[in-house]
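Sequence design from tokenized structure. All designs in this work follow the same two-part layout: the structure record, then the generated sequence. An example of the structure record is given first.
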């Protein structure tokens, strides 16, 4: 069965933001060792290659084989397909065994996970003491007052095609996401660290971002085009023209912690 992002895998790489390098530096400063990291839900490896600048080995895993076809090669990153049928014991062995992982990262994906199961695996794998789990995502993009209003109108058309059980954690910036780990000063349960991701984006790049949304693919499967020509033209006008490159800000949030001893 196809995953929620399988059909958009080819455009996902170009459409999504890259995470700031200083994020990886501040996470690396929180771990006592820098031997092994695990990037979960790695997709095309955007986070994995950032983590690899600070750790000797990174394992990037994903349930989507299609996403992994577009994974960015890096000499210190090994990408592995981990189907949902894989047992927890198999997964722990694959990653490296109990107490071996210094940093576990989940970029814009944990809201899709079976959290109790995932946290159980995390607790087994993290080095104790010294290992850290970091989760982050982003909610929306700030462009300009005019464009933000047009973007909000379009966003409201996607709501019937969204998985509310999954996305409510994104809407509230992970404030209600269970996170039973001891804070390392980078967000804690109920109190995420709020962050900005600035990026230079063309209008076509922005459209690519919208087209990579799972809601757009879901609507298309139901015969609904959420980005018809008229809507694209309205967004383009609000943007300031098809050729204009803007500095936009993705509004992000993070939770990071270690196993409570």
């Amino acid at each position: 069965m196809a995953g929620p992002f399988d059909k958009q895998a080819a455009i996902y790489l170009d459409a999504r933001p890259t995470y700031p390098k200083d994020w990886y530096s501040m996470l690396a400063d929180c771990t006592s060792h820098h031997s092994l990291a695990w990037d979960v839900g790695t997709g095309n490896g955007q986070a994995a290659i950032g983590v690899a600048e600070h750790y000797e080995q990174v394992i990037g895993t994903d349930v989507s084989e299609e996403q992994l076809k577009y994974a960015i090669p890096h000499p210190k990153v090994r990408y592995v397909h981990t189907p949902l049928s894989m047992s927890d014991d198999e997964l722990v062995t694959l990653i490296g065994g109990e107490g071996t992982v210094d940093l576990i990262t989940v970029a814009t994906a944990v809201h899709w996970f079976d959290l109790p199961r995932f946290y159980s695996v995390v607790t087994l794998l993290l080095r104790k003491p010294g290992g850290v789990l970091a989760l982050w995502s982003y909610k929306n993009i700030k462009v300009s007052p005019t464009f933000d209003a047009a973007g909000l109108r379009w966003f409201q058309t996607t709501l019937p095609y969204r998985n509310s059980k999954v996305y409510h954690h994104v809407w509230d910036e992970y404030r209600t996401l269970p996170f039973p780990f001891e804070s390392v000063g980078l967000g804690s349960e109920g109190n995420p660290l709020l962050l900005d991701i600035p990026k230079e984006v063309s209008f076509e790049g922005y459209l690519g971002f919208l087209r990579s949304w799972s809601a757009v693919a879901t609507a298309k499967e139901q015969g609904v085009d959420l980005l018809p020509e008229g809507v694209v033209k309205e967004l383009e006008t609000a943007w300031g023209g098809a050729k204009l490159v803007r500095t936009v800000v993705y509004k992000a949030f993070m939770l990071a912690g270690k196993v409570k001893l």
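Strands lie at 36-40, 57-62, 77-81, 103-107, 132-142, 182-183, 193-202, 245-258. We note this feature because it recurs in several other targets discussed in the main text.
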